[in-house]
Amino acid sequence: MSSAALAQSCTGAPVSVQVLGSGGPGHNAARASASYLLWVGGQAKMLVDIGGGTNYRYAQSGAKFPDLSLIAISHLHPDHTSDLPALFWSGRQSRGDTLAIAGPSGNQTAPDFSVFLNRLFDPKDGAFQVLAPIMTGMQGNERVVRLDPKVVDVTRAEPTTVFDQGGMVVTAIGIPHGPLPTLAYRVQTGGVSVVFSSDQTGTNPKFVEFAKNANALIMHLATNMEGSPLHASPAVVGRVARDAGVGHLILSHIGQFPLDPAVAEVKAAFTGPLTVGADLQCTPVR
Ligand SMILES: [Zn+2]
Ligand SMILES: [Zn+2]
Fold it and tell me: Residue 1: its pLDDT value, please?
């Protein structure tokens, strides 16, 4: 089956979540790296992360760049960010308004998100100087998309509101992912809520509170059964989903290790509806 044949339309339900990339950092013949779309009223409104391969998946999904209201970046590992320049290069001329984009504060292991964007797109020092117009919204006399960055302090104990417009409210909270500043996001819209856990160890009880009673929760797997200093084990993923009491669990960030035993470990704790993520898969939330 071709990849295009795998694409599922996400325009049918009032609110849906689509996996653009269900893989992690490793090379994977079937999975792009991490990325998700939230569809509201038939439009792809929010993009969460954009790892390698997902700009192509974005095109396959049928999402329209001018419909996008928010890009939410969880952390600066390349499997979550590396297609960002590709996305802007593809879409910059399709709109001339402001686009909100959020990401984490920095520490000694990573720059804060606005510094990261400047290092990519600054007109003088940026790696992609050709994309500098997205920082001002003007290319010569022509309007292009203008980024409106927001840096979220990962050290704050309580959630931060990063977006509140058009009936969509998005909050973020810092989560433990080794030394790298990392955010989970929660979006509330159309009477439902979806939580994107990103990479984390699952050891911050505040996250369980943050994800409480979400209609859908997307959680990431480690590359082994034991977990790691960066990632929760499948057993911990199951416990977090159970303790948060979520309506539907979607597993993603899937590597090459045998998946069935990992899913069985998750199911030992979480007995609700569970979906194993696949690229371009769409899950209606309402
Ligand atoms: Zn990752
Ligand atoms: Zn990571």
Answer: 43
